[in-house]
Amino acid sequence: MPTAASVGDRADETKQSGVGRPDMNKMQKECAAIRSSFREEDNTYRCRNVAKLLYMHMLGYPAHFGQLECLKLIASQKFTDKRIGYLGAMLLLDERQDVHLLMTNCIKNDLNHSTQYVQGLALCTLGCMGSSEMCRDLAGEVEKLLKTSNSYLRKKAALCAVHVIRKVPELMEMFLPATKNLLNEKNHGVLHTSVVLLTEMCERSPDMLAHFRKNEKLVPQLVRILKNLIMSGYSPEHDVSGISDPFLQVRILRLLRILGRNDDDSSEAMNDILAQVATNTETSKNVGNAILYETVLTIMDIKSESGLRVLAINILGRFLLNNDKNIRYVALTSLLKTVQTDHNAVQRHRSTIVDCLKDLDVSIKRRAMELSFALVNGNNIRGMMKELLYFLDSCEPEFKADCASGIFLAAEKYAPSKRWHIDTIMRVLTTAGSYVRDDAVPNLIQLITNSVEMHAYTVQKLYKAILGDYSQQPLVQVASWCMGEYGDLLVSGQCEEEEPIQVTEDEVLDVLESVLISNMTASVTRGYALTAIMKLSTRFACTVNRIKKVVSVYGSSIDVELQQRAVEYNALFKKYDHMRSALLERMPVMEKLTTNGPADVAQPNGEAEPVVLETKPPASGLQPTSQANDLLDLLGSNDITPVISTAPPHKLASAGGELLDLLGDLNPTGAPAPQVPHPPFLLDGLSSQPLFNDIAAGIPTVTAYSKNGLKIDFAFERSNTNPSITVITIQAANSTELDMTDFVFQAAVPKTFQLQLLSPSSSVIPAFNTGTLTQVIKVLNPQKQQLRMRIKLTYNHKGAAMQDLAEVNNFPPQSWQ
């Protein structure tokens, strides 16, 4: 047989070819030759062939056919064969393949081998890919090697024990006696792996943690080792950039953090050594910074003294001055975590943190911005807002929304005066009006309304702010509203806070009309401007005729919302002119409503957020509490409103949870949702039969959904006794060849409606249109608004779970007018 090429030869060929991967044909030929060699049971070149196969595996080619050959090499008596065999086992085998169980006996024999290097190979393999079954069978041998005096084997046995504990936690107590003398070892490799083993045991078992704290007195031993590392002289074997074994120091600090957490005695025992590490560690190299960072985390996590915590925060402050961006980012992140507990200590580094807002790195900018907002209080509000407003002017667009939101919240909480509050919000709207939250406009309007003494000053400032610039729509909306409410104060020049400007009635109307005709103006903003012009008909005396002409022009606008307003205002001029002054009088002082849940969020189009409300499930099952909150996200509602699902009994446990995947959870911490008392539903007193016998004839049926063989039609009924109630009967048909099972229909409507879902006729939709599933929906529409609905469908079909979301906007006018 020709001599097989070595792995080095193949690697040289790859380098000489100038490409990262050898030619596919060449690799296929090589694999074929290796297979032939394996079939011929060629023991001479088996080791070399497996080595080549591992090289191919690292290049991404399939090498599974060499698994059994690895087992044969492991069973060999030659060390060179065993080495390649164990390496191949670690690369090609894992616990998902039953083949790995065949080498359990070989590993057991090698763990008892007379040569330490063979024992080391077996320990490495077991610690790398040992399954739970192998770990149970071989844990005894690992425990024996953990007690041996050979440092080479002890360190490998300790790491193997870590893997055994992770796979079979109940075997943890087997290794407890062997851990008593591990920390007395002088070899740093054994010390390092021993600390890793002790850390794993403490993290996985509270009982072990308590045992090491009280019985083993582990903290004093770790303190002694750490002190020796700090005080020891230069050791070339362990020195890294002038620091003795930083890897061991970091591991010990992490274990001390676990032992000192929520324990006064352990924390007190390690306070001195932590202070010593924090003051004596060199900071000119990254090695020292890594140790200091772990020291800071340990100090912050245990019950340390206040002076020690200040020292830790000062270390983070020094990190902020480091030229390395990664160190600055780590410092900002750590300070952000500690600012709530050590606020005053972090405040001392406020100027350094604010300087980080000017950093070129966007990650550092974001962390600095978040930390800056966390540092804002009543004492520094003016200075911090000045810096943050400057940052808002110059920052990238992706920061503007979060920065504007943070400024709004801070100004509302710590504003020193109403004028300062109004000026700050107006500055934000002028700078980043397109990025502010949707509720910024109504909140500022409320603030202005409640600041009676600031009305003249505010309307004058807003008037000057929007002259010739309508790019910031929220600012234009607030300005239009204020000019409509307080236009008389603007014209009269009653501003006392600053020098008044001379403005005529026509000039005010010119600005509002230019807002109406500007291409930059949104539909909502035009509504604000038209309403403001209408209000000025009662504030201005000389321009009423001009206002009538403007309003009448928009009576034929293509914008339906604007047209509706103009038609109503025209009717007010013509038919109800005697009521106009009373209807358009100045708005009273607004009281801010407080709710038990999150505040309502206004939508950009002026519509209210939708809310979902469903009826009770069948009596055979109980509704999970958290499902009520899950359903609220169906249309994005933030109000905590009772929600009751209509899922069949066997789907109750999952119907609400499935909405989380698509729409997000309102209760991300996993805590139980708040118990909300169910108010009486407006339709609860209505039965489905007697009150809906009078059916409004001629309402056409609409197809609400048709996809993947599923078709859902809506049929409508109206009650003569209560025309505000519409009854919708859904009819679901299945044209595919298999039944659709576990069908769940869910619906949501805007909060101006009330919706009630009755129980469905079945949870199965028969195939081939041989039957239909029906379900009744009752909708209360007291304001006779156009009906809109969003539906969610969940069902199982052909062995797969299906779900889809759709909107229904094509309801016939007869169903809601």
UniProtKB/TrEMBL annotation:
<dbReference type="Pfam" id="PF02883">
    <property type="entry name" value="Alpha_adaptinC2"/>
</dbReference>
<feature type="region of interest" description="Disordered">
    <location>
        <begin position="1"/>
        <end position="23"/>
    </location>
</feature>
<dbReference type="InterPro" id="IPR013041">
    <property type="entry name" value="Clathrin_app_Ig-like_sf"/>
</dbReference>
<comment type="similarity">
    <text>Belongs to the adaptor complexes large subunit family.</text>
</comment>
<protein>
    <recommendedName>
        <fullName>AP-1 complex subunit gamma</fullName>
    </recommendedName>
</protein>
<keyword id="KW-0472">Membrane</keyword>
<keyword id="KW-0813">Transport</keyword>
<dbReference type="InterPro" id="IPR002553">
    <property type="entry name" value="Clathrin/coatomer_adapt-like_N"/>
</dbReference>
<keyword id="KW-0333">Golgi apparatus</keyword>
<feature type="domain" description="GAE">
    <location>
        <begin position="697"/>
        <end position="812"/>
    </location>
</feature>
<keyword id="KW-0653">Protein transport</keyword>
<dbReference type="Pfam" id="PF01602">
    <property type="entry name" value="Adaptin_N"/>
</dbReference>
<dbReference type="InterPro" id="IPR017107">
    <property type="entry name" value="AP1_complex_gsu"/>
</dbReference>
<dbReference type="InterPro" id="IPR011989">
    <property type="entry name" value="ARM-like"/>
</dbReference>
<keyword id="KW-0968">Cytoplasmic vesicle</keyword>
<dbReference type="InterPro" id="IPR016024">
    <property type="entry name" value="ARM-type_fold"/>
</dbReference>
<dbReference type="InterPro" id="IPR050840">
    <property type="entry name" value="Adaptor_Complx_Large_Subunit"/>
</dbReference>
<dbReference type="InterPro" id="IPR008152">
    <property type="entry name" value="Clathrin_a/b/g-adaptin_app_Ig"/>
</dbReference>
<dbReference type="InterPro" id="IPR008153">
    <property type="entry name" value="GAE_dom"/>
</dbReference>
